[in-house]
Amino acid sequence: MRELKLWLDALAAGATPDFEECLSRLGGFFPWLERFADTPQEPEWHGEGNVAIHTSMVMEALYQLLEGPAQHICGSKRQALILAALLHDIAKPVTTRIKLIRGVERLAATGHEEQGASYLAPRLMALPLDYPVVAMILGLVGFHQVPKLLVVRNQGYSCYLHLALNVDLELMYWLERADMQGRVCADQAEQLDMLAQFALFAQEYGLWQVANPRTQILPAVQVKNTPREQVYLDNYAVAELAGADIVMAEEAIARTYRAASVYGHLYVMCGISGSGKSSWIQKYLADYHLISLDEIRAEVHGDRSCQKDPGRIVHLARDRLKAALAKRRNIVWDATNLRLDYRKVLCDLGRDYGALVTLVVFHLQIPNLKANDRSRRFTVGGDVIDEQVNSLQWPAITEAHRMIIVGDKGRTLARFGSFQTGEPGEQTEEKSSV
């Protein structure tokens, strides 16, 4: 592992390994890399050939950019950018299909961005990387098709802010420029022009080379007398701007005026079995109203592991959630919540009732999940954990008002959003709270 760390650290300091070297170093951590050479691409969009050829060209293009217009990108950002270039199409081997597009059969890899981030999330944790680098890679891979779509759809500030809350827009630009230069296609000049427009809009909106977009939004709404009320306003102002519910941060002051003084919290857990959700709840949220699907299964069936009648269990849980939200109670929802659609229902309900919604994401490598599971009273087994890993849909930072990332042994890895002193995960260093 020491040799691997030295190799990874060299990426931050100027190293330029080619695709084959990266494959030899990291193929064991990311087996889908081994399938790149056998994964074809649509000839009209990728005349260069398979995914391995494309990735090799993307990395070469990125190194040229890093020696030229992007030479100011260094350190951890450079490390993340190179690894994102290597891994940006990691899910193409499992998503590439023949699809009918405008009446023509094409090879397409629909959803490879999101699936790629979900595949990488637990596996990146096995590498000796600082967590901010892991987060950057996941953002770059998971959203790398968005920049051109923003331009094509003529989207405005809210969509650029939404993206900027999830990933550094400048890093995304350089990745996508390398992605476009690392291919053979008839419309390359047009595609590069769209990326240039993306960069111009990001600069115009004040979101270029900005580490934390919240810092530019929040000064306009610092009007509350108590930290509790201010935290509520801060988080709602950012979320409503990114969701296009308002066009100026100041609008959130009136929209949240009453709720800011009477709101309850909703904490939604998101983590594979064995990740430490229950222990974390006991440590930080022991006095919260707990809604646990396992406990409801035990109540209904006499067995927390019984999977019969799942619709009834979820219906009961949601009814209890609505009742507690209506009373503005502080609530924690304890379940794996690995799928986006499950999380969205909960987060939307919380927002509808005026709660401050925090998503707590447990981010561990697979061997640690299995080891933790074996030491638990209620074990699910390695096969179930493998199934959960395969079903994971990695969450975006913007799914809830706030996000806390928790690693092994309950250690806080990052916090996103505004927090009061004394709130969960405060042992995180300030630089990780954005």
From TrEMBL:
Regions annotated as coiled coil: none
Chain segments annotated as transmembrane: none
Xref: InterPro entries: HD/PDEase_dom, HD_domain, P-loop_NTPase, tRNA_CCA-adding_enzyme
SUPFAM superfamilies: HD-domain/PDEase-like, P-loop containing nucleoside triphosphate hydrolases
GO molecular function, one term: nucleotide binding
One family name in Pfam for this protein: HD
Domain HD: 51-129
Keywords, sorted A to Z: Nucleotide-binding
Protein name in UniProt: HD domain protein
Organism, scientific name: Vibrio aerogenes CECT 7868
Higher taxonomy: Bacteria, Pseudomonadati, Pseudomonadota, Gammaproteobacteria, Vibrionales
